[in-house]
Amino acid sequence: MILLTPDHTYIDDATGQAFPGVTSVIREAGLMGYMPGDDWYMTRGTLVHECTALFDQGMLDEDALDPALVGFLVAWKKYRADTGFTPAPDFIERICFDPVLGYCGTLDRDGLDIKAGVPTKWFLIQAAAYWHSPEVNKGPWQSVYLHDDGTYKVKVYAPQKLYAAFQVFCAALTVTNWKKEHKIQ
């Protein structure tokens, strides 16, 4: 079984072997870029994921929710109501593992990635890596962009586009693994 540690490291609990995560691979290969404030946005994204996961599991105390997250939750509720989307309970923030390529990730929902903000180019590469995971339905993939004003937008990626982006992810994984093997920062 693969476990996710608090510092966002994927570990095989039987062997202790660590595996790179999808987002880390993209960052290490230099495909993400960096802007001042990125850490704040990454933290906000994590909190939005936790909020929507707790909501989908029926465990969210909405009265205790940080006001900065309320709009994102409203957007998620609207998306679900507008589309009729009901997440499979075993696909809410599910850890995926590709044993052949040796990488892990955390799937937001089956066939769907939740984002808090605006689209960036590397999101397609991330979606493609998740889409390729053995556990995932290989149909179209959606990124649902939740906004703090309670609105959302959906971007749908066709399998052909995901396959092409997956090739970029494989190259990034190769570069990341090579850098690690040769102790290059």
Any descriptors?
globular, 185 residues, three-stranded mixed β-sheet, alpha+beta, 42% helix, three-stranded antiparallel β-sheet, Lambda Exonuclease, Chain A
Brief sketch in words of this structure:
This protein is an alpha+beta fold. 42% of the residues lie in helices and 19% in strands.
Fold and architecture overview:
By secondary structure, the chain is an alpha+beta fold. The protein has a single domain, classed as Lambda Exonuclease, Chain A (Alpha-Beta Complex), CATH 3.90.320.10. It has helices at residues 22-28, 38-56, 67-83, 122-132, 159-181; strands at 2-4, 10-12, 18-19, 94-98, 103-107, 112-116, 141-146, 152-157. Strands 1-2-3 form a 3-stranded antiparallel β-sheet, with no helix packed on it. Strands 6-7-8 form a 3-stranded mixed β-sheet, sandwiched between helices. The protein has a two-stranded antiparallel sheet with strand order 4-5. The longest helix has 23 residues, at 159-181. The mean pLDDT is 92.
